[in-house]
Design goal:
Family: Belongs to the 'GDXG' lipolytic enzyme family.
Structural class: alpha/beta
InterPro entries: AB_hydrolase_3 (IPR013094), AB_hydrolase_fold (IPR029058), Carboxylest/Gibb_receptor (IPR050466), Lipase_GDXG_put_SER_AS (IPR033140)
Oligomer: single chain
Protein name: Alpha/beta hydrolase fold-3 domain-containing protein
Number of strands: 9
Organism: Eruca vesicaria subsp. sativa (Garden rocket)
Strand order of the largest sheet: 5-4-6-7-8-9
Radius of gyration: 21 Å
Helix content: 25-40%
Order of helices and strands: EEEEHEHEHEHHEHEHH
Shape: globular
């Protein structure tokens, strides 16, 4: 068989500037990912911060493959000007806590091990890593950030979106929102059920897994006004006002950023993304 030589030919057509197919993902002004997998990066841009994200779902449900999360991750990456690594973790009740924490730590250890091996890591600033998550994922991000095993990898900050914490004593927001079940997808009854399924056998909601862990990194806590979890998130912020920044988004409930398709939901999601971008790149101005 006669050998065939394949060459790339550039035409004189000024519009024919792309040999790699359509752009399938783009962070405007920073990165373009083409249909054939080719990646281009602006020559004026240095390496990007990395967000390691943990999805919500009461430790019992959820997946990085859910379309609502894929859409939110794309918006988060574009607006925050960061790379995003979305982590799947083992779910309860088959795998009760601390399985999710262990998987979160292992994800960070994988980053440490492969930081020089992966093509995408060439774009990543490993001195600027942020742990983030919503609901149960926010709880995981908080607990993973406190784990000594992830050192010496530098965790610059944590971003906790409606973090899932609890206790046996009811808070005012839990009582208020429970009387208006239309205001949020997370009810007090469902919250209690998730915890009952996720905790080790025999544990109650005073278990340390239900509580935030003190960490030494700066933290942004994003709170929904109509969320049963609001008071617990604000209490966490009040415990260290110097390191913790708390922002309350008015008129929206739990998981609004992935589930609320209303104009208000979209508006509050955009505000939250702007706050996350400011937290990462302009912390003092937030």
């Amino acid at each position: 068989m006669e050998a065939t030589t394949i060459t790339h030919v550039t035409t004189n057509n000024p519009n024919n500037t792309n040999l790699h197919g359509a752009v399938v993902e783009e962070v405007e002004g920073l990165i373009k990912v083409y249909k054939d997998g080719h990646v281009t990066k602006s020559s004026s841009v240095s390496k990007l911060p990395l967000i390691v994200y943990f999805h919500g779902g009461g430790f019992c449900a959820g997946s990085a493959s859910w379309s609502c999360y894929h859409q939110f991750m794309a918006r988060l990456s574009a607006k925050s000007r960061c790379l995003v690594m979305h982590v799947n973790y083992r779910l309860a009740p088959e795998n009760p806590l601390p399985a999710a924490y262990e998987d979160g730590v292992n994800a960070i250890l994988w980053l440490k091990k492969t930081r020089n091996d992966n093509l995408w890591s060439k774009l990543c600033d490993f001195d600027r890593i942020f742990l983030a998550g919503d609901s149960a994922g926010g709880n995981i991000a908080n607990h993973v950030a406190a784990d000594a095993l992830i050192k010496p990898l530098n965790i610059e900050g944590t971003i906790l979106i409606q973090p899932f914490f609890s206790g046996e004593t009811r808070t005012e927001s839990e009582r208020r929102v429970e009387n208006n079940t239309k205001s949020s997808v997370l009810t007090l009854a469902s919250s209690d059920t998730w915890w009952r399924l996720a905790l080790p056998r025999g544990a109650n909601r005073e278990h340390p897994y239900c509580k935030p862990v003190e960490i030494k990194t700066r933290t942004l806590v994003c709170v929904a006004e109509m969320d049963v979890l609001m008071d617990r998130a604000i209490e966490m912020c009040d415990s260290d006002e110097k390191m913790n920044k708390c922002v309350v988004y008015k008129g929206v409930g739990h998981a609004f950023q992935i589930l609320d398709e209303s104009p208000l939901g979209h508006k509050m999601t955009l505000e939250m993304l702007c706050d996350i971008e400011a937290f990462i790149h302009h912390f003092e101005s937030l």
